[in-house]
Design goal:
There is one protein chain. By secondary structure, the chain is α/β, with parallel strands linked by helices. It is built from 11 helices and 5 strands. Helix 1 packs across helix 2. The radius of gyration is 22 Å and the shape is globular.
Length: 274
Amino acid sequence: MVEELSMARGLPPIAAMAAVLLAVVVATPARAVVDVDLELILAVDVSGSMDRGEADLQRQGYVAAFRHPDVVRAIESGVHGRIAVSYIEWAGTQYQNVAVPWSIVSGTASAGEFADAIAALPFHRDFGTSISTILRFAADRFRESGARGLRRTIDISGDGPNNMGEPVDRSRDAVVGLGIAINGLPVMIRDGGSRARMRDLDIYFEDCVVGGPGAFIVPVHDRAGFAEAIRRKLVLEIAGTPPRLMHAAETRPLARVDCLIGEKTRGNWFLTDP
C-alpha cells in the first residue's frame, strides 16, 4: 500500500508511510468514554462454604435488586442518571471470573438486561477464600470500564475470612489508596445448612476488609433477608448515602479482630471449604 501511494502521488516512501498511518488513525475513532455517577464492581463469593441454597439466594438477590424500582430510582437520581457495573464471581487465589462484563445501566430496560445476564449464568463453586486477591483483581478491572465515574466502588460479599493470598488488610489499603471504596456484604447465616462460619464476620469485614470514605457493610443474618440486604446495600452505594461514615483504611483504629484469623485457622477451614 505504501509503494502504491508513493507511486500514485509522487511521495517519497517515508511521507507515504506517514500518510498511511494517518489514514488508519482517522479511520479508527477512539471509543468515547461514558460519564457515569458510579463505577461499581459486584464481587460475589462462590467459595465452597457457600452452600447451593445460599448461592442461589445470593444470585437471585442481585437479579431481583436490578429489577426493583428502588434500585432503578437510585440510578436515575444521580447527576448523570447512569452507572457502569460489572459482576465478578470469586473464590480462592485461582478463581476470579468476570461473569458479566461492564454494562451501562441507566433505567428500567438496561437494569433488566443486566439482571437477565446474571440470571443466565451457570452455577459454579470453587475452592478457598481469597478476599485479598479479588480486591486486587477487581481494582485492575476499572481500567476496562469504558466509563468515567464520580465514584468507584467494589461491593464484596463473603461468608468467611481471607484464608489464602496476601494479608487482606494489605490489599485493602492498596485499593483504598487508589481512591476506590470497598463496601461489604458479610453473609452470617447460621442454620443447619451452614458450614464454615466466623461468629464476628461483620466486625472482621469492618476492620479488615471495607475501607474508603463512606465505606459500610450490610450483614445478612438469615436466608429470608438476603434479597432485602442486597437491595438495601445497592441503593445506599448507588445513591452515595451510606448509613454511617467509616474512616479510610489507613486512618482507622486498631482492628478489634485478628485480620490473619483466616490464614491462622486455614487447616480447620480446609475441612469445611472444599
